[in-house]
Automatic annotation (TrEMBL), chain A:
<keyword id="KW-0274">FAD</keyword>
<comment type="similarity">
    <text>Belongs to the acyl-CoA dehydrogenase family.</text>
</comment>
<dbReference type="Pfam" id="PF00441">
    <property type="entry name" value="Acyl-CoA_dh_1"/>
</dbReference>
<keyword id="KW-0560">Oxidoreductase</keyword>
<dbReference type="InterPro" id="IPR036250">
    <property type="entry name" value="AcylCo_DH-like_C"/>
</dbReference>
<dbReference type="InterPro" id="IPR009100">
    <property type="entry name" value="AcylCoA_DH/oxidase_NM_dom_sf"/>
</dbReference>
<keyword id="KW-0285">Flavoprotein</keyword>
<dbReference type="InterPro" id="IPR037069">
    <property type="entry name" value="AcylCoA_DH/ox_N_sf"/>
</dbReference>
<protein>
    <submittedName>
        <fullName>Acyl-CoA/acyl-ACP dehydrogenase</fullName>
    </submittedName>
</protein>
Automatic annotation (TrEMBL), chain B:
<dbReference type="InterPro" id="IPR036250">
    <property type="entry name" value="AcylCo_DH-like_C"/>
</dbReference>
<dbReference type="Pfam" id="PF02771">
    <property type="entry name" value="Acyl-CoA_dh_N"/>
</dbReference>
<keyword id="KW-0560">Oxidoreductase</keyword>
<dbReference type="InterPro" id="IPR006091">
    <property type="entry name" value="Acyl-CoA_Oxase/DH_mid-dom"/>
</dbReference>
<feature type="domain" description="Acyl-CoA dehydrogenase/oxidase N-terminal">
    <location>
        <begin position="14"/>
        <end position="127"/>
    </location>
</feature>
<dbReference type="InterPro" id="IPR037069">
    <property type="entry name" value="AcylCoA_DH/ox_N_sf"/>
</dbReference>
<dbReference type="InterPro" id="IPR006089">
    <property type="entry name" value="Acyl-CoA_DH_CS"/>
</dbReference>
<dbReference type="Pfam" id="PF02770">
    <property type="entry name" value="Acyl-CoA_dh_M"/>
</dbReference>
<dbReference type="InterPro" id="IPR046373">
    <property type="entry name" value="Acyl-CoA_Oxase/DH_mid-dom_sf"/>
</dbReference>
Amino acid sequence: MAESDNIVVETAEKIFADLADPQTINNDKTNSWQAPLWQALSEAGLPLSWVPDDLGGSGASLADGFALLNAAGRFAVAVPLAETMLAGWLLAQAKMASPEGEMTVVPASPKDRISLDADGALSGRARGVPFAKTAKHFAVLAHGKDGVSIALIDAAKARVEAGLNVGYDHSDTVTLDKVQPITIKSAPKGFEQTHLMLMGGVARSLQIAGALESMLDISVRYSNERVAFEKKISKFQAVQHNLARLAGESAAALAAATSAADAIANATSFNDEIYLEAASAKIRCAEAAEKGGGIAHQVHGAIGFTMEHILHRYSLRALAWRDDFGSESYWAVELGKLVANRGADELWPLVASR
Amino acid sequence: MTAALRFDPIRLPEKCEQLRKEVRAFLAEEIAAGTFDPHKPNREDTDAPEFSHRVGAKGWLGMTWPKKYGGQERSFLERYVVTEEMRVANAPTRRFFVADRQSGPVLLKYAPEHIKMEILPRICRGEICFAIGMSEPNSGSDLFAAKTRATKTDGGYLINGTKIWTSSAHIADYMIAIFRTSPPTKENRRHGLTQFLVKMKQPGIKVNPIGQITGQYEFNEVVFTDHFIPDDHVLGEVDGAWKQATSELAYERSGPERFLETYYVLTELVRAVGPDPDTRSAEGIGRLVAQLHTMRRMSVSVAGMLEAGKEPVVEASIVKDIGTIWEQQLPHRVRDLAAFVEETATNRETLERQLDFAIKTAPKLTIQGGTTEVLRGIIARGLGLR
């Protein structure tokens, strides 16, 4: 997915370039850049890209929203853009309007469950919820005796234990104890928590792919500037081959993530084909975050290990994003079960169907 | 951005799916008739001339070429489907694969009209086999160090020297080879090589099979002693082969054959673990399938870009780099995962026999058709590092 393929991405990239320049925000210890950035994104209608006009959003296509997430990954911005987009998308599944301001989704892991009791109150614990601490509202997927419901709740009604992920972004534990939602509706027939996790996983995959594109870019640039043993380190074959491998990891992540995004954008239901695409994207992108990020650090040497340098903004976030909405290990087990269950002779037809 | 790699999510068009059904039905018939066993990639004799004729009769050879040369003027994406289905079925494609993928397109671009009219329709009918004469005993990856001489004589050239690692030379009817027509110049060490069409099974050519560590005999030494090649068999510019070599590489590097060569062991592993695998097996299979799916999506994306007339040289090299490493590691990963497969698994023997062969095959995958090191050099150049 190249830059500036569409107006949504163009708008976002202009905002990121103006208000979230990596070096500038990296130098800003007080995070004073976050509020103006969020305001600009909100004014452009980007956090509610996936919410239809009549539900208070800007009604962008799924494809445009995915491209936006890829761009957000290239800038590794530490604001809840992906989270608010996912929350808006989840609420829209039940034709519920989105409020203004930051949101996140609960739960954010396939293993956590929120339950809906007979009084219409929500209870349960969700770990690793991104940006729960700064969100004003949560979009909640809950299981009740009549199936899956989608609810909007006031974040102040939940207990939030703050935590930080590997990338220094909020990843919090949310506990709901008989919380009365602002609004609640049944999810559409057939909608499951797995679908939210696959959607979240693809969002994270696109962000990882974007971060890897940037890591490749800054690593290539650095290798063409840094001199050692009296020549640019880009002239050393060992460095060249490392960067070629990083390009391969970046390319694989981009291909897997954009393929899954395209698949979901054009799908009518979450079938085995979508499962293959989305789970594969999360698995492959997570593996690329480890391998590719490792190479980017190796090329940079000690300078890349400093807080002053921007590399960690991408490398650590890419690693942290592996954990959200199901880790690669989780999805590998699930995908492996699906493949085994379909049977050996149905593997190739599944792969070839994409 | 210094490096804008593109892997657009290209999908195969609807007409490909009809074609896929036809190819699967055809292969099922061939398997039923005993032409080949899809579970046995380790055949001793990989040549199948009759099968080759039948594939040609289906219109699946040279299918992207102009109709006047026997082609079907179909798309590269349709050819992609035929190639991947043949590969996954372990069909015996040796006799026609090189001609269809590589030699035909070179002839289309550089051969004189009468040679195109003579040879291309025969490739399309599956009648003739091609080899590629690149490597020599002292020049492999360093293609432009080739020394085999083509000396100008009346009406043509006399060839003297040796090509080596030449796949299928023992059954080939033709070879497309590069020979030295002039010494390299100071300014350009790649200067002085010329591409030729060589008719095999002629005086002055001796083919010596070389045993491979798999137990097969697929590649050869080819010795030329005053072998005569007529002038009209020069392909392209005399001394200028280096200008012709690069543009075709994208086709050669990014196809499904670059990650599916050992695929069969994954199918057998899934069969061996059964419908309800333990966590270890499930995770292992899941990771392998995620890689496979990603490789294929990258490969299809490059095929789509080629179809659209682009030249994704760097992207194609990336596909071959990571695709061949994946297919090289695959038998070892499958072996790991199969370590605790029940002794009673019905296909245990098949899996073990396949692993034996795939593990022996693995080392060549990152060498043939451009080593990993060469590919990474090309990628590095594309990134602006050299």
